[in-house]
Write a structure and sequence with these properties.
It is a single chain. By secondary structure, the protein is α+β, with helices and mostly antiparallel strands. It is 33% helix and 14% strand. A five-stranded mixed sheet has the order 1-4-5-3-2, sandwiched between helices. Helix 3 packs across helix 4. 24% of the residues are buried.
Length: 171
């Protein structure tokens, strides 16, 4: 009778997976994959689709802005992380990041790729989208941040816009 084989130790596997994730977060995205006019767009599952549409139309008031023009990638990443942390502490629900379209960069829209990568990996970012033309177009990104205590500020029931039955008042 053979003894059952011991279960493999997954600790090393988990460490390898975590290291691979850290490496992919540090590697620059292929900037050439972002065409000059490509629109950035992202939303977490907890954010209703109508909210993303409102963000893309520029219907949220922008409370603060960060201009990343003329920064190196490492400077821009550090400035972006500090800015988003301060915006969240100040309870700003919507901010604008100006990164440019990358038209003058030999490597393409490097800062735009950086913004996309950083925002997708931050847990306090609920959604983001390229700004409407009047607010910078594809050279700027509007960002919705999570509220204090992790609240999203979105009520799924209200977001669905279900018609309510009104009671008539009789006297």
């Amino acid at each position: 009778v053979e003894a059952p084989k011991p279960r493999p130790d997954t600790r090393r596997h988990d460490e390898d997976e975590a290291e691979a994730l850290r490496e992919t977060m540090r590697q620059p995205l292929d900037a050439l994959a972002y065409a000059m006019g490509e629109v950035l767009e992202f939303r977490r599952d907890e954010v209703p689709m109508p909210t993303l549409k409102r963000l893309k139309r520029g219907e949220f008031a922008v409370q603060d802005e960060l201009d990343l023009h003329r920064m190196r990638v490492d400077e821009a990443e550090a400035a972006l992380r500090v800015f988003l942390g301060e915006a969240r502490r100040a309870q700003f629900p919507c901010v604008r990041l100006v990164h440019g379209k990358g038209l003058r960069s030999e490597a393409g829209p490097v800062l735009k790729a950086l913004v996309d990568r950083v925002l997708r990996h931050r847990g306090d970012v609920l959604a983001f989208a390229s700004a409407p033309p009047a607010q910078g177009g594809t050279g700027a990104t509007l960002v919705l941040l999570r509220g204090p205590c992790g609240r999203t500020g979105f009520n799924r029931r209200r977001a669905a816009r279900r018609p309510r039955l009104r009671r008539s008042r009789r006297r």
